[in-house]
């Protein structure tokens, strides 16, 4: 069965949600997405543990997939691609300022965000490790890239359906959380350069709700953006590879380099001091990780393209 209708449907949903004016008004969608994330993660974790219990053995090895099932080169690329996927999982820093801007005070936004960041990193890391380890223990080298959408599990069907539905809802919210800052940036720049372009607004009456202000430029440009990203997704339907590439490209500059440099300037850390050296070592290490992850993800995409047919993703 072709996956294209589902991708198109997802794009249509995003066109509607993309008309939400700004980041501040999608707080509820972000909460729903977070709940869905923990829902499908918990389901995947539970099914993984159940599968291990059913097998009565732990599959897989500490060294990962065996040479023979894949070549040594493919294994190296896979490791690098995995680093990219991990990097993407921690690429929230690019929207952290936007989130902080929505936090109410007192207490101060900085204190709230620091506490929330520590808790969220701890909890998500715990879930990542548990899901990854339980999935590999359950299936070994044959573990799918995604335990639920990869159909690693078939029963119980109702639980799988709930998990897959949670993934879709999470992706809908996640898409908006990441693109709303981009929308705001572009529209702000357009408003500065061409004020008349961004000034055409229409009021749409919604029964039972306050009138919705529909901006013509926002409608057109956001719709075009969603259509383009949807078409690209259909053209390059390599989820793990593309995810790894995006994570690799964004991890070092946005999650490590700029925050580290801003911290050094803000705290006035002397150059070549012990703390400065440690921070630079961290930055260099993460740059190397990002570079390797980029290479691995690109290699993965190239390998996928060998058996690729445009708009031909089936499941």
TrEMBL record:
<keyword id="KW-0812">Transmembrane</keyword>
<feature type="transmembrane region" description="Helical">
    <location>
        <begin position="159"/>
        <end position="186"/>
    </location>
</feature>
<comment type="function">
    <text>Carrier protein involved in proton-driven auxin influx. Mediates the formation of auxin gradient from developing leaves (site of auxin biosynthesis) to tips by contributing to the loading of auxin in vascular tissues and facilitating acropetal (base to tip) auxin transport within inner tissues of the root apex, and basipetal (tip to base) auxin transport within outer tissues of the root apex. May be involved in lateral roots and nodules formation.</text>
</comment>
<dbReference type="GO" id="GO:0012505">
    <property type="term" value="C:endomembrane system"/>
</dbReference>
<feature type="transmembrane region" description="Helical">
    <location>
        <begin position="119"/>
        <end position="139"/>
    </location>
</feature>
<dbReference type="Pfam" id="PF01490">
    <property type="entry name" value="Aa_trans"/>
</dbReference>
<keyword id="KW-1133">Transmembrane helix</keyword>
<comment type="similarity">
    <text>Belongs to the amino acid/polyamine transporter 2 family. Amino acid/auxin permease (AAAP) (TC 2.A.18.1) subfamily.</text>
</comment>
<keyword id="KW-0813">Transport</keyword>
<feature type="transmembrane region" description="Helical">
    <location>
        <begin position="277"/>
        <end position="303"/>
    </location>
</feature>
<keyword id="KW-1003">Cell membrane</keyword>
<dbReference type="GO" id="GO:0015293">
    <property type="term" value="F:symporter activity"/>
</dbReference>
<feature type="transmembrane region" description="Helical">
    <location>
        <begin position="219"/>
        <end position="239"/>
    </location>
</feature>
<dbReference type="GO" id="GO:0006865">
    <property type="term" value="P:amino acid transport"/>
</dbReference>
<feature type="domain" description="Amino acid transporter transmembrane">
    <location>
        <begin position="2"/>
        <end position="302"/>
    </location>
</feature>
<feature type="transmembrane region" description="Helical">
    <location>
        <begin position="245"/>
        <end position="265"/>
    </location>
</feature>
<keyword id="KW-0927">Auxin signaling pathway</keyword>
<protein>
    <submittedName>
        <fullName>Putative amino acid transporter, transmembrane domain-containing protein</fullName>
    </submittedName>
</protein>
<dbReference type="GO" id="GO:0009734">
    <property type="term" value="P:auxin-activated signaling pathway"/>
</dbReference>
<keyword id="KW-0029">Amino-acid transport</keyword>
<dbReference type="GO" id="GO:0005886">
    <property type="term" value="C:plasma membrane"/>
</dbReference>
<keyword id="KW-0769">Symport</keyword>
<keyword id="KW-0472">Membrane</keyword>
<dbReference type="InterPro" id="IPR013057">
    <property type="entry name" value="AA_transpt_TM"/>
</dbReference>
<feature type="transmembrane region" description="Helical">
    <location>
        <begin position="26"/>
        <end position="50"/>
    </location>
</feature>
């Amino acid at each position: 069965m072709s996956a294209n209708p589902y991708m198109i449907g997802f794009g249509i949903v995003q066109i509607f949600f993309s008309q939400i004016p700004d980041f501040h008004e999608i707080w509820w969608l972000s909460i729903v997405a977070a709940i869905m994330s923990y829902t499908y993660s918990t389901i995947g974790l539970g099914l993984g543990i159940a599968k291990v219990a059913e097998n009565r053995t732990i599959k897989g090895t500490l060294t990962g997939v065996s040479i023979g099932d894949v070549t040594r080169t493919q294994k190296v690329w896979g490791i690098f691609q995995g680093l990219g996927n991990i990097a993407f999982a921690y690429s929230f820093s690019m929207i952290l300022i936007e989130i902080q801007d929505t936090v109410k005070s007192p207490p101060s936004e900085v204190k709230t965000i620091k506490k929330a960041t520590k808790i969220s990193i701890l909890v998500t890391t715990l879930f990542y490790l548990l899901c990854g380890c339980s999935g590999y223990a359950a299936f070994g080298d044959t573990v799918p890239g995604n335990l639920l959408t990869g159909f690693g599990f078939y029963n119980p069907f109702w639980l799988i359906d709930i998990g897959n539905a949670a993934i879709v809802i999470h992706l809908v919210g996640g898409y908006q959380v990441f693109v709303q800052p981009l929308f705001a940036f572009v529209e702000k720049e357009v408003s500065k350069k061409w004020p008349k372009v961004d000034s055409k607004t229409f009021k749409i009456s919604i029964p039972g709700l306050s009138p919705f202000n529909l901006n013509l430029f926002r409608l057109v440009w956001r719709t075009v953006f969603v259509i383009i990203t949807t078409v690209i997704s259909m053209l390059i339907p390599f989820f793990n590879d593309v995810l790894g590439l995006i994570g690799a490209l964004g991890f070092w500059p946005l999650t490590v380099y700029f925050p580290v440099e801003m911290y050094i300037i803000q705290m006035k850390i002397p150059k070549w001091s012990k703390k400065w050296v440690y921070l630079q070592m961290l930055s260099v290490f993460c740059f190397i990780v990002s570079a390797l992850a980029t290479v691995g993800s690109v290699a993965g995409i190239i390998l996928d393209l060998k058996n690729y047919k445009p708009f031909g993703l089936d499941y």
